[in-house]
Structures are given as C-alpha cells and as structure tokens.
Fold:
Amino acid sequence: MRRSSLASCGLVALLSAPVAVPAQTPPPAAPAPAAAPAPTPIPFPEALRRAAADLFSKANLAEDRVELVIDPLIDGVSGAQSASTRSMQQTLSEIVGRSYPRFQMQPFTTESLAREPVVLIGTFTAVNNAGDAKGPRDAYRICLTLADLKSKRVVSKGVARARPDGVDVTPTTYYRDAPMWGKDPATEAYIKVCQGTKLGDPIDPVYIERLGAAALINDGILEYEARRYREALAFYRTARALPGGDQHRVRVGAYLASSKLGRSEDAVDAFGDLVDSGLSSNQLMVKLLFQPGTTQFIANPEITEPYPMWLSQIATRARQKGACIEIVGHTSRTGTPHLNERLSVLRAQYVMDLLQAGAPDSRNRMIATGKGFNENLIGTGKDDGSDALDRRVEFKVIGC
Structure:
C-alpha cells in the first residue's frame, strides 16, 4: 500500500489528514496470441489439386468466358523451372480443361498477351514447415495467383503445402546448363506478384512491362531445350530489343546457344556480358560444381571444360573495372555445420588461387570467405543436379 496526498504535490492541503488510497494495480497483460499451428503437408498431387480448386472456384471475375495464359511456373527462390514446375503446369492445364470450362486456355505468346487475358503465375518453394529459416527444407509451398491484365489486379489466390516425397525439383535443361544464377527485376516481380499480394492488390508494373519479352524468352528456352539453337538465339536477340528485354535470362540464353553452336568468340563475349552485369549489380553467382567433401571440381569434363574461360573472364573484367572481389564459397546441406563452413572457405580459396594464377597482379584485390550451408537456395541436401545452386561460388564487389 502507498499513501498519497495532494499536499505532496506542493498544493495547499484540502484535507486535514492524509487518506490511504489503494495502490493502482495495472490491468493484467493480455495473453500472447498462440502461434498458428504449422500447416500439415499433404501428398503433392493432392496439394496441387487443392490449390487449383481454390484458385479457379474463387476467381473474382465477371465474364462468363475468360482467356487464360500460364506464365511458366518457377521455383520461388531460384526463379528456375524444374521437372516439378513443368509437370504442375501440365496438370493445371488438364484441370482447367476438365473442370473449369469458363477458362479458355491460350498459349503464352505476345499475341495472346496483347488481348489482356488473365495470367496464371505460380511458385513452388522448398520451405521448413515449422518456419525455421535455418532448418531443413522438409515441405514445399505451392502458391498460385490469377492476375487480370485488363483490371491490372490480382483476382484469385490458391495455396497449399506438399510433402517432399516423389517431388522432382531437378532444373530443366536450360536452367541446369546456365553458368550463373541471378534474379533480375522481371523474376523478382513475378515472385512478388505470386507470393507478396492478396486478393484485389494491383499487379506490379515491372511484371506487366516485361511480360512481352518474357514470352519470347520462354520461346527461346523451349527452342534451346529442343536443340534448335539458332532459333533460340534469334528469340533471345529479339527479346533483348524489346522494352524490358534486357534480362539475365536473355544473357544466359545467348551464352548457352552460342556455346552449343560452336561460336566460341560469341560465347566468350556473351559470358563477359554476364560478368559485367553481375559485377555492376554486385550479384555474380557462378555454378562451379565440386566433388562431395573436396575442393576439386567434379570429374566431368563436359561440365568443367568452360571453367577456365569463366574464371579468366571474371578476373579480366574485374581488373578492367578496378574492382576488389570477395570470393564466397557455399556448400549443400550434407555433413556438420563446422565441416561445411571450413569446406566452403577452402573452396573459395581454391577458386581464388586459380584466379590469381592467371592474374598475379590481382592478389591484393581478392579475399576468400565461406558461408557453409547457411545461405542455401534449394536446401534439400540431395547433392545432385537438383541442388547444384547450393554448391556455388559468389563474387562480390567490395571496397578496396
């Protein structure tokens, strides 16, 4: 109990004797809201059907007939297409044809996009189901979105969690062969519209602006995977000339197609273009594949044959820009954290030694560090082609 009096405030006492006043008891604190339970992953086919049912049955559209285009689904972290995203796209087309005749499927082309259809976009992302960012990726999050190009609004959403059993996230041929990883504004806008919006939100203008070029880039990817490399190169060059066509995927495609056509000088120039773009944006992430648990590149000459050219271009372009480089090694999620952190540093050091052997004057402009598996992009720990991006080496521009 405490005693109080107005006289204690320097005023004339109005009462002859102090009055005992009960102490003020603060109201009980509201209980912290209970954490939402983690979603229960279900088998992949069932999860996709559930997300699709929500998406198409709840679409907020007035028209009886709606043109629908699918902008190819991607991995929500890497931006790559995989065996799973391709199969999802095929299944979604079949579901629409069988159960939702209101939606009229159209090809993903510049002609179809000119009619301002509804565009289906989707991401498929490995996640830790309990929400632990550093935990193992033990589920897949399916996110589907309908974006109406006429109203420029998101008109429907569908989400679900899938078990990892039987899911094949091996990148498709183009993304498997790509020498570098990078998310440019077009890919980031795609992911933002899918994952970062709610019903009725406006579509990111960056996504809309680059959609026409994206259709041509997709044509180029399909031509490349069909081994029609001249046709692929033509699509990439046409896309690059369009507004919003100066994209990472165009640069990658030009390098890959030139390499397959045996145009070595064009391939070197195209790779140099990739390096310049990466150094300018401080995002140069190169896929250099190592034998598990070692600092030696994998014993596959078909894959490692261009590595000397890649490293030479990185050293040359960095020197021309007067850039100092931090070389950062990464590993996939296999083994203990301590061993992986050490291995990632050793791999970065190995790459730095190769760079400096070809450019001795760069010794004072490079350092090697490692992140272990702390910055995995895929995070499944399969140590195969599906998580090759986790065994990457990054080159970051730092202060000299």
